[in-house]
Request: fold
Amino acid sequence: MNQAADPEPDCSLALRADAARNRAALVATAREVFRERGLDAPLDEIARRAGLGNATLYRRFASRQELIDAVFTERMAEYARAVEEALAEPDPWTGFRGFVVHILRLQAEDRGLADLLVTVSADQGTDIEQLRARAHRGLVDLVARAKAAGALREDFRTQDVVLLLMANAGLVHRTAQTCPQAWERLATLLLDGLQARAATPGPPSPDEKDVLAAMSPRCSSPGTRS
Reply:
């Protein structure tokens, strides 16, 4: 009696499983490296720490931006949720203040996120950019509500939030190794100065399009050795 031959292994399934494992390892490692070093961290370092070759990284992610999207989409969703939670706070100033402190803390905990919140993608159709747009719509309402309550200085604009995040991102990069809690001092000083009762005349906020231009797009390829 002839025994049935063993079925041939499905090599395509093994290859797909291997590719999925490599991708997951790259995303997890990139999350850690970006957190430590910011979005300009060398991609070679990510591949090395993941125990993979550069060519594997380049096959999985066609650009640095693709890797950033894979790592940070959920963190950007957290940013959008923070705006919505702030709007649910009954007291307008408490909601605004809590949002600012929360976002500055997120930046302090993750240098990659600190960079991302002040950097736009060249591709506005990505999940990250759609979440940024969602957060911005909520932020417009958050600022208007705090101003209408007489709590937030009248000349404050939504683009001023980006200026606060830019200032904090720079602080996070410069103080991460020496005084990582310095952002809390900055938050206190900024928020005291943003209250309507403390306002003094000042120059106007930069135009929104100029602030957007300062959030220079990132579109470099994985081969960039910055």
Residues 121 and 182 are 29 Å apart (CA to CA). The chain has two domains: 12-61, 68-214. The domain at 68-214 is CATH 1.10.357.10 (Tetracycline Repressor; domain 2).
